[in-house]
Write a structure and sequence with these properties.
The chain has 7 helices and 5 strands; from the N terminus they run αβαββαβααβαα. The chain has 293 residues and is an alpha+beta fold. The longest helix is centred in the N-terminal third of the chain and has 66 residues. The N and C termini lie far apart (185 Å). The N terminus is likely disordered.
């Protein structure tokens, strides 16, 4: 009887235990889901921060690149139809793009025409001028690009200028506090030396600013062999004959001048020759007399 009385209590206890177990299991199952969602949010946050950092570093790299001081030189060797027309085209394009001509030359060598032009153009227009030169050329024999980074030298010059300006202010203060004429003269000499050095360094800075903000382009031009005449139009055989006769006359004149000089100085040569012969004769007689003894 006692066992039958306990059965309802045992049954209620089992139901209560089973319900608690299900609640715990549902909590356990829901916990990883919440944890996964948190991990996804962390990933999103980290990816966004990485993108921001990459953007910042990219901006820094661009700013550092823009602040670099680079001397740029382009050398080109091309063949063209007409050297004069090509140089005129390059000259006009340079002026239109705010550049300037450094030097220009056209020369003839044994019937072949050669040209050379050196220009300096703003870096922003370098591609424009390079394309124009390529367009007028029949063939590009050689094209080189040379860059020299002078950022360190530029920064060093600025630092030296700043240090010298600080030293100048110090000497100016000492000059105002000087008690004697001698001290004032000595200090003024130091100030003049510092100012001279500052001006020289500022001149180097200005030169670097000018050379790094522009591109030097050197172009060597040759006339295309397809457009060179078989017989040089400038060949003048009569001029060559005249030049040869002129050279012959000049040679004859120089030879005649030499003979005239020899003739004028002949007494001296003859006198020296007679003296030499007499000395040899006297020496020969002495040797002969010595042998007879």
């Amino acid at each position: 009887m006692k066992i039958y009385k306990l059965l309802p209590i045992i049954f209620i206890t089992m139901i209560f235990t089973f319900s608690c177990t299900q609640e715990n299991s549902s909590e356990i199952m829901s916990y990883p889901q919440e944890d996964f969602s948190r991990t996804d949010s962390i990933k999103v946050a980290s990816s966004s921060s990485r993108a921001i950092s990459e953007n910042i570093s990219s901006n820094l790299n661009h700013s550092q690149k823009d602040s670099r001081k680079v001397v740029q030189t382009i050398s080109m060797e091309i063949t063209v139809v007409s050297i004069q027309d090509s140089i005129d085209t390059i000259h006009e394009a340079t002026i239109q793009n705010d550049g300037f001509i450094i030097s220009s030359e056209i020369r003839d060598d044994r019937g072949k025409t050669y040209g050379f032009i050196s220009i300096r153009i703003p870096k922003s227009d370098t591609a424009v001028l390079s394309n124009i030169i390529r367009d007028i050329s029949e063939k590009i024999i050689r094209e080189n690009l040379y860059s020299n980074d002078v950022t360190d030298q530029y920064s060093d010059l600025n630092a030296r200028i700043n240090n010298m300006k600080v030293a100048e202010q110090t000497y100016l203060r000492l000059f105002n506090e000087a008690k004697s004429i001698e001290d004032m003269v000595n200090i003024q000499g130091k100030i003049n030396e510092i100012r001279w050095d500052i001006e020289n360094l500022e001149g180097q800075i200005n030169y670097m600013d000018a050379t790094t903000s522009t591109t030097l382009i050197n172009v060597s031009l040759q006339q295309s062999s397809d457009h060179q005449p078989i017989i040089n139009e400038k060949w003048k055989p009569f001029d060559t004959l005249k030049d040869s006769l002129r050279d012959l006359v000049e040679f004859t004149q120089e030879f005649a001048n030499i003979l005239i000089r020899i003739l004028i100085f002949s007494p001296i040569w003859i006198g020296m020759l007679i003296i030499i012969l007499l000395l040899r004769k006297i020496r020969w007689k002495k040797l002969k007399f010595t042998r007879n003894k």
